[in-house]
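lol ok so funny story. i was supposed to be doing the assay writeup but got distracted and ended up predicting the structure for this chain instead. priorities right. anyway since i did it might as well share w the group, maybe its usefull for someone
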Amino acid sequence: MHGSTWHVGAVLPAADAPPLGAHAITIGGDGRIAALAPCDPSGLTTAEAALVAMPALANAHDHGRGLATLACGVADAPLEHWMIDLARQPRVDAYDTAALALARLAGSGVAAVYHCHNTQNGAALLDEAEAVSRAARDTGVRVAFGWPFFDANPLVYGDHAELARFFPPERRAAIATMDQGLRSCATNMALFGRAQALEHDTFALHYHPVAPQWAQPATLVAIAAASAASGRRVHTHLLETRLQREWADAHFPQGFVPWLDAIGLLSPRLTVAHGVWLRADELALLAARGVTVSVNVSSNLRLRSGLPPLAQIAQAGVGLALGLDGMGLDDDADMLREIRLAHLLLGQPDRDASGPAALPGTQAVLHAAWSGGRAAILGPDDGGGRLAPGAPADMLLIDRRRMAQDWIGDGWPADPAWLLARATRADVAHLLVGGRAVVRDGRVTGLDEAALAARLVTQARAARAATPPDTARIAQTQAATHAFYAAGCHCGQP
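and the output, tada:
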C-alpha cells in the first residue's frame, strides 16, 4: 500500500474535539495516519477547500441485502408479519448481493459494518460466508460477520404444536415439528470453526445468536462461554417489538435481561440491536456490564416496532451505536440520513421533565456514528473513530458545495450540527479504509456498482419467473400466526 496526502478545508477529528481549519493529512504505507498538519488555505484548490475530513462511519447492525425487500414485493409491516412475507424473496448469488450491499454502504461513507447474516439456503451457510468474505475484500469495507445461531421458535415465539391448530389439517404435522429441522448448536459451532479460515484483514467472524427468543437457552450459554474463552464479540437482536416484550415478561418473570446476565451473556463483548422495548432498570444493567446498544430508527419506523429510547439509552450510560438494518427510511442505504434521524430524536424534549429543553448537542450521536459503532464491530482497542497520527486511516471526506450553496457565512460551514442537518450520500467525495480509496470522486472503486445492480435484478427476475412465491401459503401462515398472537399463546395462554 502506498502513502498519500489529502488537502482539506476543515477537519472534524473526533466527537469530543472542535473542528480544525485547513490541513494536510498524510497517510502512511501501513494504512495509518502519519501526520495531520495545518496548511495555508490559500494554497487549496476550490475542490480541496470544500472538503471536510472526518472519521469514517460505522453501521453497527445490517443484513447485507443487495436487493431491497420492497423490491421483492415485501411491503413494510409489523416485524412478525413482515418476516413471513420474506418468503417472497428470490434466491440470488450470495456474492453479488453482499458486494452490492457493501458498495452502497461505502458510497454513504461507511467503512465498517456488522453483517447479521440471513441465509438464503441453510445448507449453504459456509459457501455464503465465503462469498461475503470475498465481497469484503473486493469492496474494502471492514465486515464483522455475525454467524447465525437460530435453533428455536422458527415461526412464532412459543409452542409450535399450539400454533399448528391454527392451520388447516394438512399442514399441522409439519408446523408442529418444524423446529426439529433447525441447525443444532453443536453443528453450528463446528461450522463456525471451519469458517475461521475465511477471515482476513477486513473480514472477521462474530457469534450471532439471532435473538434470545430464536435460540435455545443452552445455545446462549454455550455462546457466552465461547465468547469469554476466545474474546470474540457477540451480537443479538433484543426486544425489538411489543410481542417480544410480552413473550419475555411471560417466560422470564424473574426478569429477562437479568436472566441473560445470569447465564453470562452480558459483557463488554456484547452488542444488542434495537432495544426498542428496554426498560430503565434493564438499561442500567446493560450499562453496568458494558454492553452496547445499536439503535435502528428507520427500520423501527418502517416495521412498526416503536421508537428506541435514545435519550434514556444515552442518559443511562449505555454504549450507543447506530445501524441501518438494511431498512433505510428511503431504501437508499444512506447512513448520513440515519445519523440525522437519530440526532433529531436524541434532541426531543422529555415529556416527563419540566422547564426548557436542553439544547441538543452533537457529541453523543457523532460518537455513536464514529466510535461507538466501530467498537461494536471491531472491538474497543481498534484505535479508530478519530483522525489522529497513528490511528487507522479510515476517513470520510465530504464535499460541502452542494449542501452549502445557499450558505451566506464566510468560507464553508464546518459546524458538525450543520453537517448533521444536511449531509447525504450525494455529498460523499472520498472514503478511505486503511488508506485505500474505497470511494473516489463519489464512485466506488473496487467494482462496477451499476453493472452489479443490473445483474442482481436480472437474476432475481429470472429466479422469480422460475419459482414464483406461493402467495396463498404465505397469507395462510400470516393469518395463523396473527391468530396465535391474538390468542395470547406467546404468553402461555391456552
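The chain has a mean pLDDT of 95. The chain has 18 helices and 17 strands.
back to the writeup now i swear
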